[in-house]
Design goal:
eight-stranded parallel beta barrel, 13 helices, single chain, 30 strands, alpha+beta, about 20% helix, nine-stranded antiparallel β-sheet
Length: about 600
């Protein structure tokens, strides 16, 4: 048992000053069987603490249906085994480049712009969620012999709003449900962010990637006393589909870390180990003028150019950080654990079976919704990750006119009378060729990730406007959802009617096998799909996430624990255009490139 407190100048444990040397590692982005190794890597880098977010939408995908909330508790137990304290950031909003910033679709769909405010209905949903989640934290607080030393109230709220009533309510909920360790907030080191996001009586911390002295000067204007802490030291950055890879030079990041520590501050390295956005949980961003923003979906890898890469290996940044942190560590820094071992040889999984998308939808999809006057959004259908097939009739006879979709989010493959006619996006919303009536139109619409940061948080997905022929809206739309979650069910593909892939079309579900020898000693593999366009991949029923030929990511991370000795199965759901009739698995390659340039700081 111990007592962790926030003093006027330092953090203290049983009255003794302590500096927090923390690293971010999200339990939900790392396979559970690999937690112990990754946490031991944090210790070997010279850290004494681990920080994690908690994604509400992962654990309560539908109201009152909870899924493995105890995973947080198991992770905190693993942190304690590794000799680390723990900082927990339970939200309810987390950002984290995660789908919808961690808010469930049923929350943003129901409450809309009332989320993250004092609205009583929204707060009621938060309160019910905290009632289920917080026992995992409360029983593992340092005062009860556990590793948890601090808990965050909301997250970077000053980048979003200024509702002090809401922030105090969230902090009150944490206290009422037994959180006794210090509470804190974290925001960018700017006056408007700290004004909007901090709460009197709670420790305010700052998030930045460089310029520690200037950042802490701003923080001191708002908080004259208390320990200084950079709660997110951005040592790298995340990447978007279709954009150039982002790296941050190790020497530059190391000097920024050194500056934080020279200020006498504590630090949380974001990220120490990034991991992977498995199962389509990657979020998205908006950039540009608020009324005309580009949509930027985040890639599957969350390597983040972190000191411990996506494959669990130490990098040059790790080596340099370790040298700096060792000077501030309380005792000798532990030796590194054995480096993770990749798949020993390159193997090829022939994709021999195929089923068209319609057959997959028939086997795994929801019931088709009744025809409606306007297309239902994903939120109205209760769909978080996956795609929706919209069908509508163009009446006739009539001459050919332009067919377009207003409010499309995010991407649609369009068929007219069974013939593929194009791919539409938010920016390119009209087919190249006009459509004559009568005709039957199908639009297979996929969400590429919900916005996780900024004022467009919670914007709906699917067809949020309408389908138009010339200027006329088409009504009587029929919608049917294919959820990624459906592939997680036991024997999920038992009802899918597969055929020989030699007769395959360019889209659909492909299935094949590969053999592995020595699976028990394999930490990871890397999977590639030569010539394939866009879709999702599963290995032995575990969803690796989205692939997309746009880049910058070419290789998907395969956790070793999902591999089996002998025969393994791979599924590929291709939505635009299949490539070579196989998938390749090898020892894994670094996500990073030698592209010059630095991450945002």
């Amino acid at each position: 048992m111990a007592d962790f407190t926030v003093g006027d100048d330092h953090f203290r444990i049983d009255g003794k000053p302590v500096r927090l040397l923390s690293g971010a590692l999200h339990y939900f982005r790392v396979h559970e069987a690999q937690w112990d190794h990754r946490l031991s890597m944090l210790r070997a880098m010279g850290l004494n603490c681990v920080e994690t977010y908690v994604p509400w939408n992962l654990h309560e995908p539908q109201p009152g249906r909870f899924r493995d909330v105890a995973a947080l508790g198991r992770f905190l137990d693993a942190a304690q085994r590794a000799g680390l304290w723990a900082i927990v950031r339970p939200g309810p909003y987390i950002c984290a480049e995660w789908e919808n910033g961690g808010l469930p679709v049923w929350v943003t769909g129901r409450f809309g712009r009332r989320v993250r405010s004092r609205d009583e209905e929204y707060l009621g949903a938060v309160e019910r969620w905290f009632g289920v989640l917080l026992p995992q934290v409360v029983q593992r607080q340092i005062g009860r012999g556990g590793p948890v030393i601090m808990v965050q109230a909301e997250n970077e709220y000053g980048s979003y709003g200024s509702d002090q009533v809401y922030l105090r309510r969230v902090a009150g909920m944490l206290r009422e449900r037994g959180v006794t360790v210090p509470l804190f907030t974290s925001d960018g080191p700017e006056d408007h962010m700290l004004t909007g996001g901090s709460v009197p009586g709670l420790l305010a911390t700052a998030n930045f990637g460089s310029g520690a002295r200037e950042a802490f000067e701003v923080l001191r204007r708002h908080q004259p006393k208390g320990p200084l802490m950079c709660m997110e030291f951005w040592c790298g950055w995340f990447e978007h589909w279709g954009a150039e890879p982002i790296v941050r030079k190790p020497a530059q990041a190391t000097e920024a870390l050194r500056e934080i520590l020279e200020c006498g501050a504590s630090v949380n390295i974001y990220m120490a180990h990034g991991g992977t956005n498995f199962a389509g949980w990657a979020g998205a961003n908006r950039s540009g003028p608020i009324q005309d923003q580009d949509f930027l979906p985040t890639v599957t890898s969350y390597d983040y150019d972190a000191p411990i890469d996506e494959y669990g290996r130490p990098t040059e940044k790790f080596r340099l950080f370790r040298e700096v942190l060792a000077r501030y560590a309380d005792g000798p820094v532990p030796e590194l654990p054995p480096e993770p071992v990749g798949l020993a040889v390159l193997v090829r999984a022939g994709l021999t079976d195929w089923a068209p998308l319609d057959a997959v939808l028939d086997a795994l999809g929801d019931e088709e919704a009744a025809p409606s006057g306007v297309p239902p959004t994903f939120e109205e259908l209760g769909v978080d990750r996956g795609l929706v097939r919209y069908r509508v009739s163009v009446p006739g006879p009539r001459r050919p006119y332009t067919l377009d979709v207003t409010g499309l989010r995010d991407r649609a493959v369009v068929y007219v009378d069974g013939v593929r006619e194009g791919v539409l996006t938010e920016e390119n919303r009209a087919l190249d060729e006009p459509v004559a009536g009568p005709a039957e139109v199908e639009l297979w619409v996929e969400s590429l990730g919900r916005v996780n940061y900024g004022p467009r948080l919670g914007e709906p997905k699917g067809i949020t406007g309408g389908i138009r022929h010339e200027r006329q809206f088409l009504h009587g739309v029929r919608a049917r959802a294919l959820r990624l979650e459906a592939f997680e069910e036991p024997d999920a593909l038992a009802g899918v009617a597969f055929a020989d892939a030699g007769e395959a079309g360019s889209t659909g579900l492909f299935r094949g096998t590969f053999e592995v020898s020595g699976a028990a000693g394999t930490d990871h593999a890397g999977l590639e799909l030569p010539g394939w366009t866009r879709g999702f991949v599963w290995v032995n029923g575990f969803c690796l996430g989205r692939y997309w030929s746009l880049g910058a990511q070419r290789t998907l991370y395969v956790p070793g624990p999902v591999l089996r000795e002998g025969v393994n199965e791979v599924w590929v759901l291709e939505l635009e255009g299949a490539g070579a009739p196989y998938a390749e698995l090898g020892p894994g390659v670094p996500v990073r490139t030698d592209t010059p340039g630095d991450a945002q700081a």
